Amino acid sequence: MYRINCIGILTSGGDAPGMNAAIRSVTRTAIFNGIQVKAIYRGYKGLITGEIKEFHTEDVSNIIQRGGTILKTARCKEFMTPEGRQVAFETMQREGIDALVVIGGDGTFTGAHIFGQEYNVPIVGVPGTIDNDLWGTDSTIGYDTAMNTIVEAVDKIRDTANSHERLFFVEVMGRDAGFLALNSALASGAEAAIIPERLTKEDQLEELIKNGFRKSKNSSIVIVAESPNTGGAQGLAERMHTEHPEYDVRVTILGHLQRGGSPKAYDRILASRMGVAAIDALLDEQRSIMIGIVNDEIVHVPFSKAIKDDKQVNPDKLGVLQILSI
């Protein structure tokens, strides 16, 4: 039996509200089980440079409500190289770290999967990404809060859209996935969502115009995923100016506004449950898995599937959006 006496915890990739709640949960669950906790700052970069501090229960007091990540995060090109990963492993050995809990998204788990295979390191991933694009889990930490942030912003934009009888393209995050765009469009009463998943099937902008999306309204809001495949809100607005100059078009790009803010209750609860499950999995000698949630039950998803299999948007929701936009 592989005995774990000390774990390292890090956050990597884009920050997401609820990451601090996950850090708190992992830290306190490990301590509850008699395991030492070493906090690794700035993601895999800190694992290479040795930016590491022992965490006690008081180190994670009063952070459940805070956005961002107290451990900071950074992209790390060095960790993508065999040489960088070797230095990272040597740091783990020097610090006495037996296993890792990594909080992040697709890129984070890709690095963890390779590292775990090369050095036989037990690693468990906790999905923290606002895009909600990881296969094997119904939701990722930060997604619900980001969606609520978008809806609040769109509610405000609609006030001015109505006042000036304008068409607004509102750009949200989701380079390869339309979960934020589609679900925030439904929740905010937007007229349409333009998402990367549908681009191979039709010209979504032309379909929008053809369906006469403003026939009964004096203003309209269209949520656009930031994907280069969609052209983004600015690209669509330029097309409208050229092809349909009769519309008064405006663009709002929400950008990093979506990442910030205090996590909503759902993300705090999800992060707390997943953090406990991550330590339980390590104690059960699990490795190279992501903690997921399906039908409100914790599941274990192999890294290989979480990062390689495509998570699909629910096509029924597109139909609901079209019906309700008349």
What would a concise description of this structure say?
The chain has 326 residues and is an alpha/beta fold. The chain is 41% helix and 18% strand.
Question: What brief labels describe this structure?
Answer:
326 residues, alpha/beta, Rossmann fold, 2 domains, 7-stranded mixed β-sheet, 4-stranded parallel β-sheet, 11 helices, 11 strands, elongated
CATH fold description of the largest domain: Rossmann fold
Give the tally of β-strands: 11
Largest sheet, described in full?
7 strands, mixed
User: How does the helix and strand content classify structurally?
Assistant: alpha/beta
Shape: elongated
User: What is the CATH top level name of the largest domain?
Assistant: Alpha Beta
Count of individual domains: 2
Description:
This protein has 326 residues and is an alpha/beta fold. 41% of the residues lie in helices and 18% in strands. The longest helix has 22 residues, at 143-164.
Secondary-structure topology with pairs:
Elements: E1 6-11, H1 19-32, E2 36-40, H2 43-49, E3 52-55, H3 82-95, E4 99-104, H4 106-119, E5 123-127, H5 143-164, E6 167-172, H6 179-188, E7 192-194, H7 204-210, E8 220-225, H8 232-243, E9 249-253, H9 265-283, E10 289-294, E11 297-302, H10 303-308, H11 315-324
Parallel strand pairs: 1-2, 1-4, 4-5, 5-10, 6-8, 6-9, 7-8
Antiparallel strand pairs: 2-3, 10-11
Helix pairs in contact: 1-9, 2-3, 5-6, 6-11
